[in-house]
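Sequence, structure tokens quoted for completeness.
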Amino acid sequence: MQDRRTETISDSEPDRDSLMRLLGGRTSALDASAPPVAFGLGWLLSGESIATGGTVAVIVGALIGLWRLFRGARPLAVLVSLLGVMLGAVVALRTGYAADFFLIRLGTNAASALAWMISIAVRWPLLGVVVGTLLGQRTHWRRDPALLRAHSRASWVWVGQYVVRLIVFLPLWSINAVVALSAAQVVLTWPLVAACVALSWWVLRSVLPDDHPGLRHPRVE
């Protein structure tokens, strides 16, 4: 007789892959890491010209945006990403401090960490919102105490993701380490998101009781 716990784990594997795509697939990683790398290279090879680095980053961001549109991405999402690159370039130009290109990214990571922490505090953990939407559960998962607890604990993994980026980025930003910031952006995008998805999925499955029917089946009285 197969253990129900084993069934739960095997049933949830396709959802982990879907969650990876939804929260940070390879396309999103390219969109997040390529413009900063382009800025760093353009800045370095042009004799530390912020204008050149910013121009190269915007061009690369625009090309990636066109590619994403061709692949069916939402125009609003593409526009927001491109505007973020443009805003970073403008901020760096205005301040004359090349590392300020990454200031927007520092702000978004800090805001994201705060948003995830607030969602846990008000008992609407964002991971539960995402997974519930992915599985078509609407808000049924919130009426299952075990699922609510599991999503809350697993959401702390995502808080940790943003905190790790801040711990790495802030010291580099403070010393204007543009090339190191560009490299860190690559390392802390796709690899970190992949690790975060795997770890949060493990937390979800380990927190649920052995007799729980699984993420797909909230126990609602």
Remarks:
- The first helix runs from residue 4 to 24.
- Confidence is low (pLDDT under 50) at residues 1-14.
- The two ends are 27 Å apart (CA to CA).
